[in-house]
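On to my pick:
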Amino acid sequence: MRLLEEIVNLLSDKDGSLTDALLKTKVLMHRIGHKELAGWVNDELNGYPKDLSVPDYRVIPIRLHGDVSNIAWRHPATQLPTAHLDKEMREKFRIEKLRQSVQVLEQLSKGADSLMRPVQPEFYALLAKGGIDPSFHIDRAWVQFEPTQIVNVLIEVRSRLLDFALNLQGELGDVTDDKMKEAAKGIDAPGMLASAVFGDNATFVFGNNNATTITNTVNKGDFASLEKAFRDRGVSEADVAELKAAVDEDDPIVVAETRQFGPKIKAWMTTMTAKAINGVWGVGIGAAGNLLADTIGRYYGIK
């Protein structure tokens, strides 16, 4: 069986080894003359180092729990609030960046119980102040997430790699392994990998200073691109300023978790829709609704 066909078969079979598929993909990168593309494969196989950002699909929501007590009462395993914390601290206790290798994640996904990471005691006073009744104190705290969330991450890796393998297979056609490198010369393999694995709106350097850019109107989390998108569509400076205030006030973590826009963004969208209806904003009402939802959705990474 040919290498690319083996990879597709492994990835399309829910019981096929994802680790084996990644290892074979590493071999495939060399055979098509693009060994520099193996960086992402290596990170999935070996785990992501602390100085490297993890892909969005490896960022999952978590819950903060703790044992709290006072002189009269004790409440074990209580979910603790985080709304009183600043944005950086909220993220620390509400999202988890999974840096482990695929093989480790596969093991974690097989458990039946919730997965936990302890919170250092030096954070207890900060978590308690303004978060729980002053008569209580935190005895122990941890963040918690579920094995099913790990399963979803592994499905994402499998699906994205399968998209790349299928797209490459479609471009190469029925070619033998020994002729694969020659057949791949006219194919934009870096672009195909970036598009399948990372999606739109990203620039990746794959070694030897080769950059591949996947473009779209709005980049996730980049307000400058969001501002430009709306300015290009006739949104006034004042309305853009109000949008910036709405983005700053709504919690992006809640948006990502619920896949619903926050109250300030919804209010801004309502205002802009009314302006489209009244002709103040020169966009048709039908187009306005789609434009608002799609453009802002791309900013939050939910489109």
About this structure: The chain has three domains: 3-53+152-214, 58-96+114-145, 223-300. The mean pLDDT is 87. The first helix runs from residue 3 to 12. Residues 37 and 278 are 51 Å apart (CA to CA).
